[in-house]
Design goal:
Number of helices: 28
Strand content: 15-25%
Structural class: alpha/beta
Radius of gyration: 52 Å
Number of strands: 37
Mean pLDDT: 78
CATH superfamily of the largest domain: Vaccinia Virus protein VP39
CATH topology of the largest domain: Rossmann fold
CATH architecture of the largest domain: 3-Layer(aba) Sandwich
Largest sheet: 7 strands, parallel
Strand order of the largest sheet: 3-5-2-1-8-9-10
CATH class of the largest domain: Alpha Beta
Shape: elongated
Low-confidence stretches: 1-20, 209-213, 494-511, 630-652
Number of domains: 6
Length: about 950
């Protein structure tokens, strides 16, 4: 054995054999949206001789070929290849996941599997990180870069639990911070760095020899380390398993690029924060919701029914979850128990005490907030019933949180709870040595009720404390408390004042004189008249000793045991065993006479009687021993001098007879063993048949699940296609809607769009004033609107338009007398279906007023024309004849019929047409009128004429010209 202070053996994997290449440090990089830029920046700052194998796992589009290899090849001098099935991982290489695949690493080989059909179960980063933790252990590095969602949060926990290094990109530098934030929220990330800083840090981890775990740690160094850690939470790590402590120590040294343990110890003396970080690393908090889900089913099947059977409503179910970490296991148990109570319509109260030695873990557990990555462990139905979705994750509902009481507790120092129905302590004992395991199991035995149960992890057993617990379910490590004759030894630190008070109270608690007298009488009677014996349980473990059993029982060499068959003296084994077996089968007393037991150098005859006991609720047996002599002779021999064998005692006549009797007893014992073996084989055969039947059912179920997965995958692909189409249509619809809103807002026309049900859909701002509309009138019937228009029934016009599928136009006036053109046009959908009408109002007040002015001028001119005696005619703005008196017609020889509308140029030649046109247009109107000369076409003599215009009511030119010939 190595002396204290000598170098301990190096911890970790053994060195590769000569000629084998060294195992590289494998770096898994997970990313999603925005991760390519971050990964490129990381590679640019990574030295070429870092001796690292990098595997890039990114969420890729399943229906497109990946261009990652081409893109990364131009950004890094390292060889970049797409991962293939069975490809061996080599240092200084970059491997990229193929699209629509899932990638894992086993040993040093990459393996590819199809993408899961269920899209919610496609978490390639978690899958690769988990396999990386199992394959590389402390030589694994997990990096989470930019991306949406929470993929990678579970994987970094697995890598941290295996002793690897975990890194996350700073959320501020990530284009999408969902994945980095989810990883950091687990508390399992060692470093939070920007992409530019990750490359140099990886080079430091790769070039350091610490990840090869070839650094030895001496006992004295470990003792110094324990003394430094003790003040942090008062935890003594001396009885924790050394390999775990060494792996965690070397991992912290690797993060700080320290190669000597003494240098790291000096750092711990100077840096209290690093001491806390190391302490947190040693307290491994790797857990998840419904971890090993079949064990929860077994608890619900074997334990929960007995908890509510016959329990008074006011007696709460008390459960203790020791080593609860961040609370996932406590909440899982609370959910399963709540479902069981609801299913059985039970209103029994529940108290779950969840404890852990880490204050930080307890704070996280109390909050009950977990990242969205728990979707992989919690079913959709349980997420809906027992969780509330919040920003970036899920929070346990208040109903479940109220069932759990979280508190800090050191199992090795603090007193336990009591009167518990169930203790859940999974994967806690595996980190402790046998001394602590034995102590904790004794504490659990004390804390449980007589019928309480203890559940351990898959890799844990009760070990040397098998006398305290009986096995209920071997596969899922469910044990039930056994009654113990004496309480287990437990010691907890307490104040001297408390001990003094307890000492003062002791005399008052002493039994009375009558009770002492009764005890003494019973002792004397048992010693003088009762045969010696023992009380055993169903597993042959001795529960009580009665009388002097020394002549028949003695401790067996080796590890201490209270098993009756191990303590029976030579010669008694086969007889005692067969008597107990017969009592088990017959369920009645069994007596064996004339057994032989080694007594010193000779042999003595003994009678053995086995009596079943059922008063305790469990089967026990009372085994009595008595020498094969009469009781009177026995009393006479006690009163006389030294004991001599009675004269009538038979002695073996020869050694042959003795051997024959021994052979017969051995044959009888062997026959009983064979019978038990045959019965056990029959039970095993029956169990094997049941297992085969279950296996066939499971295989059938698995085939159905595979079919369902394929159908779901096909449905998901169709849904993805439809979703993309809908997204494109939504974007197009948004643009069209935006264009329509801008068009309506900018149009200076009153427009109202009405549906086929006469309800208003949209209207322009101009329509608000003209039709007395307000924004709340949308989806209101047009018939309920009182428009600011006289003499127009909009509802009837719209109905006529829809029925006739034709444009309807009306001229209407508002209450102020302004004129509008009302047009009702059918509304046609994209499918050319009539789905309402469009009502538009155009302002025609100015043209109407102009027309009225012209008519007024014409009327005035015609009146003057009839009353004048001079040759006179009326011209319009186009210098066409509108009217003429008789003198004008005769002067220019114009027929009385059909002259209206003829141009003046057809009947007379006028000088100064341009001036006359200006007068008609109102551009030039001399006060006395325009003087001009007219000539008849067939007469050369000129005629003098005067042209005048008539103003309209608003002062503008009416366009009517009065032409008078002056003689």
């Amino acid at each position: 054995m190595a002396k204290k202070g000598s170098k301990r053996a190096a911890v970790g994997r053994s060195k590769p054999a000569a000629g084998d290449p060294p195992v590289p440090v494998i770096v898994g990089v997970g990313a999603s949206a925005g991760g390519l830029d971050a990964f490129t920046a990381m590679l640019r700052n990574l030295p070429l001789d870092a001796d690292l194998a990098i595997v890039f796992v990114q969420h890729l589009a399943p229906q497109h070929e990946s261009a990652l290899v081409t893109l990364l090849t131009g950004q890094s001098a390292l060889p970049v290849v797409q991962a293939g099935e069975g490809m061996r991982v080599e240092a200084n290489h970059v491997y990229v996941i193929p699209p629509n695949r899932q990638l894992v690493v086993v040993g040093r080989e990459l393996h590819i599997s199809p993408r899961p059909a269920d899209r919610s179960q496609y978490t390639p980063v978690d899958a690769f990180f988990t396999s990386l933790a199992q394959s590389a252990g402390s030589r694994s590095v997990g990096i989470v870069l930019s991306g949406t969602g929470s993929d990678g949060a579970i994987g970094v926990s697995a890598i941290k639990g295996a002793g690897g290094v975990t890194i996350a990109q700073t959320p501020e530098s990530a284009r999408y911070d969902g994945m980095p934030r989810a990883a950091v929220a687990t508390g399992m990330v060692d470093l939070v760095l920007s992409p530019d800083q990750i490359g140099p840090k990886l080079a430091q981890l790769g070039e350091g020899a610490l990840l090869t775990t070839e650094v030895g740690i001496a006992d004295a160094q470990m003792d110094e380390l324990f003394e430094l850690l003790r003040p942090i939470g008062g935890i003594d790590f001396r009885h924790y398993k050394p390999p775990t402590i060494r792996r965690r120590l070397l991992r912290r040294m690797a993060l700080h690029r320290i190669t000597a343990v003494d240098d790291y110890l000096r750092m711990l003396h100077d840096d209290a924060a690093e001491v806390r970080n190391l302490s947190q690393d040693l307290l491994i908090h790797v857990t998840r919701f419904f971890r090993e889900p079949e064990s929860f089913d077994a608890i619900a099947q074997h334990i929960f029914p007995s908890l509510i059977q016959g329990r008074p409503p006011d007696q709460a179910i008390r459960v203790w979850v020791s080593g609860c970490a961040t609370g996932e296991e406590s909440y899982s148990l609370a959910i399963v128990l709540t479902e069981f109570l609801q299913k059985n319509a039970s209103d029994v109260r529940v108290q779950i005490f969840a404890t852990d030695v880490s204050d930080a873990a307890i704070e996280l557990a109390r909050g009950g907030f977990y990242p969205a990555s728990i979707e992989a462990d919690v079913s959709a139905d349980r997420l809906r019933r027992f969780f509330t979705k919040e920003d970036g994750g899920y929070r346990v509902t208040k109903m479940i949180r109220d069932l759990c009481v979280f508190a800090r507790q050191d199992l090795t120092r603090d007193p336990p709870f009591s009167r518990l129905d169930l203790i859940l302590c999974r994967n806690v004992l595996i980190y402790m040595d046998l001394v602590l395991q034995k102590k904790l199991l004794a504490i659990f035995h004390y804390a449980l009720k007589p019928t309480g149960c203890l559940v351990l992890g898959q890799a844990e057993t009760v070990g040397a404390q098998a006398t305290l617990f009986s096995l209920v379910d071997k596969k899922h490590r469910i044990h039930r408390k056994r009654p113990s004759g004496s309480p287990p030894e437990m010691s907890f630190p307490r104040d001297h004042a408390v001990a003094a008070v307890a000492a003062k109270k002791m005399p008052a608690d002493l039994p009375s004189v009558d009770k002492l007298l009764q005890t003494e009488v019973n002792r004397i009677i048992n010693d003088r008249f009762a045969p010696p014996g023992v009380v055993i349980d169903a597993d042959m473990q001795i529960v009580q000793f009665r009388g002097q059993t020394g002549p028949f029982l003695e401790p067996a060499p080796g590890e201490a045991s209270l098993n009756l068959l191990k303590m029976a003296k030579e010669g008694l084994l086969h007889g005692v065993r067969s008597a107990i077996q017969a009592a088990r089968k017959g369920r009645g007393p069994v007596r064996k006479n004339d057994l032989q037991v080694r007594d010193g150098k000779g042999w003595a005859r003994v009678n053995v009687e086995v009596l079943p006991l059922a008063a305790l609720g469990r089967v026990h047996y009372l085994v009595l021993f008595e020498r094969a002599t009469r009781r009177g002779a026995e009393r006479a021999s006690k009163a006389s001098a030294p004991v001599h064998p009675p004269a009538g005692a038979r002695q073996p006549k020869s050694q042959t007879q003795f051997l024959e009797r021994e052979l017969a007893a051995s044959r009888e014992y062997l026959q009983s063993v064979i019978q038990e073996l045959e019965a056990a084989n029959e039970r095993l055969q029956s169990a094997n048949e049941e297992v085969l039947s279950s296996n066939e059912e499971l295989q059938s179920t698995n085939e159905e699940l595979d079919t369902a997965k394929e159908e779901l995958q096909s449905t998901n692909e169709e849904l993805n296609t439809v979703n993309e189409e809908l997204q494109g249509r939504n974007e197009e619809l948004s643009r069209v809607n935006s264009d329509l809103l801008n068009l309506l807002a900018s149009a200076q026309i009153a427009i109202v769009i009405v549906g086929g049900d006469m309800r208003i859909r949209r209207f322009t701002p101009m329509a608000e004033k003209m039709l007395n509309l307000i924004p709340s009138d949308i989806d209101r019937s047009i018939g309920h609107i009182n428009p600011n228009i006289e003499g127009a029934n909009l509802e009837q016009l719209i109905a006529d338009c829809i029925d006739s599928i034709a444009l309807i136009e009306r001229e209407v006036q508002d209450r102020e007398g302004r004129w509008f053109s009302l047009r009702v046009r059918p509304y046609r959908s994209v499918e050319n279906k009539i789905d309402g009408a469009v009502v538009a109002l155009f302002d025609i007040d100015a043209p109407k007023r102009y027309e009225a002015a012209v008519r007024s001028a014409l009327g005035l001119a015609e009146t003057l024309l009839l009353e004048t005696t001079e040759p006179t005619a009326l011209l319009d703005a186009g210098l066409r004849l509108r009217a003429a008196n008789t003198g004008f017609l005769e002067l220019f020889e114009i027929p009385a019929d059909g002259f209206r509308g003829r141009p003046l140029a057809d009947v007379a030649i006028a000088e100064g047409y341009d001036q006359l046109s200006a007068v008609a247009d109102g551009r030039s109107a001399p006060p006395g009128g325009l003087e001009l000369t007219l000539r008849q076409r067939h007469v050369a003599a000129p005629l003098a004429a005067v042209a005048r215009t008539f103003p309209a009511a608003d002062g503008t030119s009416s366009g009517v010209v009065l032409l008078t010939v002056v003689r």
